[in-house]
From TrEMBL:
Record field: catalytic activity: D-mannonate = 2-dehydro-3-deoxy-D-gluconate + H2O
NCBIfam families cross-referenced by the UniProt entry: PRK03906.1
Gene source species: Succinatimonas hippei (strain DSM 22608 / JCM 16073 / KCTC 15190 / YIT 12066)
Pathway annotation from the record: Carbohydrate metabolism; pentose and glucuronate interconversion
Name this polypeptide is given: Mannonate dehydratase
The protein's role, per its UniProt record: Catalyzes the dehydration of D-mannonate.
Gene: uxuA
């Protein structure tokens, strides 16, 4: 059985409460992080313990971390990377000592996920995250900041915070001319350094794919297709080196066959976390996020869930992003209502697929949290 979770930004940064999350049928726990601690600084063990206590007091489990952000100097191989990696290892130790065993992270230079619109109006009255390559792929970073300021519904996009404009512009220049292979070499250096600690505490590291799965702003991107994932799997053979398989990120490129990627024998056993959502293609390098229901988007979530079950995936899963529906105003992609609908849809798909195969499926899934 997969274990349903929802991302929670913490008591000071998320308007969605743990009480609300617990009321979603089948919800076992949350994925969270110490977002107040800047990338590169070590997480104190007691801060992780405090966050875990808050979650458990609400009747949920803290089931994983998303993310311990990788500092940009590690990614481009700065002279202080060893010191930053040591701090990253200290953060992993703080997580492991608190009995948390999954960390989702990314190795995307400078930016996290990128969109051109954080609140695109859809015909049904909802709004959604959207990407239009015709707009973004012709913009400079400075022009992108201007667009975000005017099309963000009052929120900011991770990695594109307006108060970091000068800093981020400078970071882009550091990566100018870097090849994918050079970034991979820096990534391997990072993995080789952290894997002994991950193995000591049984922390499964799930790298998140590039989002969207295209090259942007001249920056190298090394986690955007099946071939890239295989290279990462072979980069360090530790069983703790794995993937957070995000269907919306990989699925942003229609050339990525998601069920085939999931079934790849070099990838399948290393999927430790699944972000399962849908996107609707509207043109070449153009899409917007949709509801999770298969026929409302371009991805067949039934086939995706079927592939995950066939390869034996029993790890953590979350509905990832959702639209803003029913007049909700929330962090883009992270409102309550559509993610709750997505979670129950995914649980229903899993139940139907497993029972269709003659497998038992628990009818008392919420008992997992009731026993905390």
């Amino acid at each position: 059985m997969m274990h349903m979770t929802m991302r929670w930004y913490g008591p000071d940064q998320d308007k969605i409460t743990l009480k609300q999350i617990r009321q979603v049928p089948g919800m076992e726990g949350v994925i969270t992080a110490l977002h107040e601690i800047p990338a590169g600084e070590a997480w104190p063990e007691e801060k992780v313990r405090e966050r875990k206590a808050i979650v458990e007091k609400a009747g949920l489990k803290l089931m994983g971390i998303e993310s311990i952000n990788v500092h940009e100097d590690i990614k481009y191989g700065g002279k202080n990377r060893d010191e930053l990696i040591d701090n990253y290892i200290k953060s992993l130790e703080a997580v492991g000592k608190n009995d948390i065993h999954m960390v989702c992270y990314n190795f995307m230079p400078v930016f996290d996920w990128t969109r051109t619109d954080l609140a695109l109006p859809l015909p049904d009255g909802s709004t959604a995250l959207a990407y239009d390559g015709k707009i973004i792929e012709g913009l400079s970073a400075e022009e992108m900041f201007d667009r975000i300021a005017n099309a963000s519904n009052g929120f900011e996009m991770p990695g594109w915070e307006l108060n970091r404009r000068d800093e981020i512009t400078a970071q882009i220049k550091k990566f100018e001319g870097m090849t994918g292979d050079e970034l991979r070499a820096n990534y391997k250096y990072f993995l080789d350094a952290i894997m002994p600690t991950c193995e000591k505490y049984n922390i499964k590291m799930g790298v998140h794919p590039d989002d969207p799965s295209y090259d942007l702003f001249g920056l190298p991107r090394i986690c955007k297709c099946e071939e890239d994932l295989v290279k990462i799997a072979e980069m360090n053979t530790s069983p703790c080196n794995g993937f957070s398989l995000c269907t919306g990120s990989l699925g942003s490129n229609p050339n990525n066959n998601l069920p085939k990627i999931i079934r790849n024998p070099k990838i399948a056993p290393r999927i430790y976390f699944a972000h399962v959502r849908n996107v609707l293609y509207t043109g070449d390098h153009q899409f917007h996020e949709s509801s999770h229901v298969s026929h409302t988007g371009s991805l067949d979530l039934y086939e995706i869930m079927k592939a995950l079950i066939e390869v034996g995936f029993n790890g953590l899963i979350r509905p990832d992003h959702g639209r803003e529906i029913w007049d909700e105003i929330a962090r883009p992609g992270y409102g309550l209502y559509d993610r709750a609908l997505g979670a129950t849809y995914l649980i229903g798909l899993e139940e139907a697929i497993r029972k269709g195969k003659g497998e038992a499926y628990p009818n008392d899934i919420n008992s997992v949290t009731a026993k905390i």
